[in-house]
Amino acid sequence: MLSFGAMNCSATSCGLLLAVFAAATASGESVAELDDAAARMQYAFYTADSQGIETILKNLDEFQVDQVLAANKSYQLAYGNWKLSQLYLQSLSEQRPRPNAKSLAAKAAQSCVRHARRAIEQDAALAEALAIEAACEGHSATARSGSAGCANSKSLRTAAGLAPNNPRIKLVQAICAPTTAVDPAAADRWRAVVASFEAAPASRPGKPDWGHVEALTMLGETYLQRGDPVAARDALERALVLAPDYRQAQQLLQAAATRPR
């Protein structure tokens, strides 16, 4: 702990130092809280727990942070609503879909766009918020081209211009890329995204770390669609090393295991 007992300072200057130290401590605690919320949202997404994400988002929305962390908070709210929208859309393909899943997905996507834009207003250099905005515009029911509406998004082009080597932006670009039933370029695209994550430096406190698992899973799914279960299993097993509870990767791996070589 920092001690001021041996310091040669006036009451005023020591008071200012104490105030700065207290503010720094509070800011550090807020960063840890935001990181914890992000980690819990990721886990809830992996386990397809939409109600869990709903609860975390509600608590995060009420969480008070200093102005310096306002953009980070808005970013996390945008990310959580994006994942929530994905889970709602995912439930449409299940045998017992959640009532009003489509409208819930659209509402979450709209909230995502709102929070992403707020994050960009607070920090214009926050390229990942622009990418999330583009992805959520694609999920929104108001998007002209449905889920592929982000392919030509101005926000995504701006994000790529600001951070061309950012793996999460590359991930969104790959998600938004127009695809056909058998896209010969899809595997190359997802391999490049995975390689970008593997080349990126380790995440630091207060910095996002999502995307690597999803990229590996999408690569595995692409291999599976191309009729290459061996390569699919390799990618999906790598995803599950990073996130053992990721339900989508588990299901795809099970499907790959039943495919003949």
Summarize the SSE layout with pairings.
Layout (H helix, E strand, L loop, with lengths): L10 H36 L3 H13 L7 H22 L9 H22 L4 H13 L14 H9 L4 H10 L9 H14 L12 H14 L3 H14 L4 H11 L4
Helix pairs in contact: 1-2, 1-3, 2-3, 3-4, 3-5, 4-5, 5-6, 5-7, 7-8, 8-9, 9-10, 9-11, 10-11
CATH architecture of the largest domain: Alpha Horseshoe
Helix percentage = 55-70%
**H/E element string?**
HHHHHHHHHHH
How large is the count of helical segments?
Answer: 11
- The domain count comes to 2
E-strand count: 0
Instruction: Give the averaged pLDDT, no decimals.
Output: 85
The unreliable regions are 1-7, 16-26, 141-147
The computed structural class is: mainly alpha
Shape: globular
- Reported by name, the CATH topology of the largest domain is Serine Threonine Protein Phosphatase 5, Tetratricopeptide repeat
CATH class of the largest domain: Mainly Alpha
Strand content: under 5%
Brief summary:
The protein has helices at 11-46, 50-62, 70-91, 101-122, 127-139, 154-162, 167-176, 186-199, 212-225, 229-242, 247-257. The protein is mostly helical. It folds into 2 domains: 27-143, Serine Threonine Protein Phosphatase 5, Tetratricopeptide repeat, CATH 1.25.40; 179-261, Serine Threonine Protein Phosphatase 5, Tetratricopeptide repeat.
